[in-house]
Amino acid sequence: MQPFPPLYRSINRAAIGLAGMTLALTAQPAFADQNAETFVQTILDEAEPALSVSDRDQMFDAIEDIVDKHVDMRRIGRFVLGQYARQMTDTQADVYYPLFKRYATQIYQNTLSDYAGQTLKVTGSVDRSERDIIVNSKLENPEPGDPFANAVIHWRVYRARDSKEMTVVDAGADNVWLAIEQRSQFTSIIANNGGREKGIDALIVELKKRVGG
């Protein structure tokens, strides 16, 4: 399984403008978290055979199962709304969160399926706090000349309060983060359409277009 180079197709290049924020996720001195590293490696090991399935529909189903199991879509969906999360009505939330889950899952499906057959291995981690860990990984045996041979693929792991349970809350490559870029895009859509409930309605309409219905 290859890293997330398709993220560069899936997310806007404007993410580079957030470099100061994203570098802060990995630049802070801290200690490695072997439990988080093991958690991420387990996901990567689980994904590898799923991505070897020749039938695309079966592969997508397998990826969706992995995402459902390990990725906290609710937390991510709230994060990407930024300050507008507090302005969303219950009725809007009932529509938005399932839509966001479909949208984000499709990104994972398209990204990972494009790079089946490779192997990712965890290379280390940085604890930003007791419950916020960045785990890094790279291609184990890249093909000669592979443009992503030296790419660092990041997984942001959240540890639940008073619990050892962990979930993935973001992913990225070379300091370009999916959820951070989604937040930039989503809040822009909301702001450009009047903000508050009206802007959130516009975002919902846009998400429906992106997921095809």
In brief:
With 213 residues, the chain is α+β, with helices and mostly antiparallel strands.
Structure, explained:
The protein has 213 residues and is α+β, with helices and mostly antiparallel strands. It has a single domain, classed as Tgt2/MlaC (Nuclear Transport Factor 2, Chain: A, Roll), CATH 3.10.450.710. 50% of the residues lie in helices and 16% in strands. The protein has eight helices and five strands; from the N terminus they run ααααααβββββαα. A five-stranded antiparallel sheet has the order 1-2-3-4-5, sandwiched between helices. A hairpin with a 6-residue loop joins strand 3 and strand 4. Helix 3 runs antiparallel to helix 4, helix 4 packs across helix 6 and helix 5 crosses helix 6. The longest helix is centred in the middle third of the chain and has 24 residues. It is globular. It comes from Hyphococcus lacteus. Keywords: Signal. Pfam families: MlaC. InterPro entries: MlaC/ttg2D, Tgt2/MlaC_sf. This is ABC transporter substrate-binding protein.
Q: What secondary-structure arrangement, pairings included, does this model have?
A:
Blueprint: H1 7-10, H2 19-27, H3 34-50, H4 56-70, H5 73-79, H6 90-113, E1 120-129, E2 132-139, E3 153-159, E4 166-173, E5 176-177, H7 178-192, H8 196-211
Antiparallel strand pairs: 1-2, 2-3, 3-4, 4-5
* CATH-level-2 architecture: Roll
Q: CATH topology, anyone?
A: Nuclear Transport Factor 2, Chain: A
How much strand? Answer: 15-25%
Structural class: alpha+beta
Assign an overall shape: globular
**CATH homologous group name:** Tgt2/MlaC
The overall pLDDT average reads 83
What string gives the helices and strands in order? HHHHHHEEEEEHH
State the oligomer.
single chain
User: In whole angstroms, how far apart are the ends?
Assistant: 30 Å
CATH class: Alpha Beta
The largest pleated sheet is described as: 5 strands, antiparallel
Helix percent reads: 40-55%
Outline the low-pLDDT stretches. 1-30
Q: Over the alpha carbons, how many angstroms does the gyration radius reach?
A: 17 Å
Number of domains: 1
SS summary, helix count = 8
Signal peptide: 1-32
Keywords: Signal
Protein name: ABC transporter substrate-binding protein
